[in-house]
């Protein structure tokens, strides 16, 4: 048997073999049976070999295209014991893909940023290597070269892979390279990387300070968590008067899984209703500006002793919240209930004794368990001593 090894398409490899006559009479080689791409180049047949002599035969491998080739060469002679001798021949034409790397770790990358990495693919074979396609999953991507791509024998091509995480966490994928390498049609590169970023979470997105006397002050505390995997930096907090952030000073850094407590106050210098949106600026890539709606009202001393019982709510209809305002001319036990259209109790907003004055309470459209109630018609029922009132309100989507 003989293996010609690798050969380029339409190229030739010759192999010389010897045929010896070990008998006492002339050996006549009548013919050789062989199929392309193998052929006998020499000698011209029939060939006569004298006793104890040898003759050199040249066999040629001339493949037309990529593939594995094999044949059994049959030599016909006048040898009475072995009139047909056989030699198994083989050869191939193939590109051979060689990767400079079989794995790569991109390391840590900030969300929405990009890290590039270059790797080389070499053709160590005897035929053109064609890279048909590359399969890879986000957040990894092969951006060059355009595919399909051909690499000549002995040449290399540089491939550029990027890592572009859209979320925090560890990412893994196996990039698969499909080619015409007949021994290894699919080669793989194991990829990994880590997306890093901060993630701001607020304890509240709406707060009602209630009513405050003119020049009085009401304090409130809220919490800010960092649920990301790198430091959350609170650069600044912006809020308009008469709302103020009293502590801490900024900027502030919150470690992963850490928290920060903010203290705010309502300090009105005039009577009326007040609404503002506090803006918290941070390095959270998804929420660079987190918002908290603040609500409050201020009444002067002359307004603090209402003459009649009165109740109202605004806005109505509402989407996120509605504010129920009520006034008490006398000290009373007050209970405010939210019920649905069937009369089922949804939530108790107030259940305590109140002195004469002006009050408000905010319903954020949630039940006792803190779950959002579906859109529809609801009622608020207020009981204050002998005073009773029930009013309809509509929650929108």
């Amino acid at each position: 048997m003989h293996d010609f090894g690798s050969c380029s398409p339409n190229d030739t490899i010759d192999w010389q073999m010897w045929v010896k006559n070990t008998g006492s009479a002339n050996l006549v080689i009548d013919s050789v049976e062989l199929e392309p791409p193998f052929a006998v180049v020499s000698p011209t047949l029939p060939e006569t070999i004298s006793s104890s002599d040898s003759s050199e035969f040249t066999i040629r491998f001339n493949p037309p295209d990529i593939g594995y080739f094999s044949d059994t060469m049959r030599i016909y002679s006048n040898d009475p014991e072995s009139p047909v001798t056989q030699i198994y021949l083989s050869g191939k034409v193939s590109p051979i893909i060689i990767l400079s790397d079989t794995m790569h770790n991109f390391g840590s990358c900030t969300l929405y940023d990009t890290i590039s990495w270059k790797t080389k693919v070499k053709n160590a074979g005897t035929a053109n290597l064609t890279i048909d396609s590359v399969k890879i999953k986000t957040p990894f991507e092969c951006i060059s070269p355009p595919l399909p791509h051909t690499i000549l024998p002995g040449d290399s091509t540089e491939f550029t892979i990027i890592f572009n995480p859209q979320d925090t966490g560890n990412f893994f994928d196996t990039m698969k390279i499909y080619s015409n390498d007949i021994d290894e049609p699919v080669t793989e590169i194991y990829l990994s990387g880590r997306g890093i970023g901060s993630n701001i979470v607020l304890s509240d997105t709406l707060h009602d300070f209630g009513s405050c006397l003119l020049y009085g002050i009401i304090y409130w505390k809220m919490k800010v968590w960092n649920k990301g995997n790198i430091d959350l930096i609170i650069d600044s907090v912006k809020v308009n008067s008469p709302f103020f952030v009293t502590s801490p000073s900024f900027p502030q850094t919150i470690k992963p899984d850490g928290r920060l407590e903010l203290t705010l106050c309502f300090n009105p210098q005039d009577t009326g209703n007040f609404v503002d949106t506090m803006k918290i600026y941070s390095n959270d890539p998804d929420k660079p500006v987190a918002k908290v709606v603040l609500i409050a009202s201020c009444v002067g001393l002359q307004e603090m002793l209402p003459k009649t019982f009165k109740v109202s709510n605004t806005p109505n209809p509402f989407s996120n919240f509605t504010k129920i305002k009520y006034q008490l001319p006398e000290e009373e036990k007050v209970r405010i209930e939210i019920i649905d259209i069937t009369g089922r109790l949804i939530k108790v907003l107030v259940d305590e004794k109140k002195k004469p004055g002006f009050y408000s309470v905010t319903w954020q459209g949630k039940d006792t368990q803190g779950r959002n109630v579906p859109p529809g018609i609801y009622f608020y029922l207020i009981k204050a001593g002998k005073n009773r009132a029930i009013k309809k309100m509509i929650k929108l989507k």
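The mean pLDDT is 94. The first strand starts at residue 2 and ends at 6.
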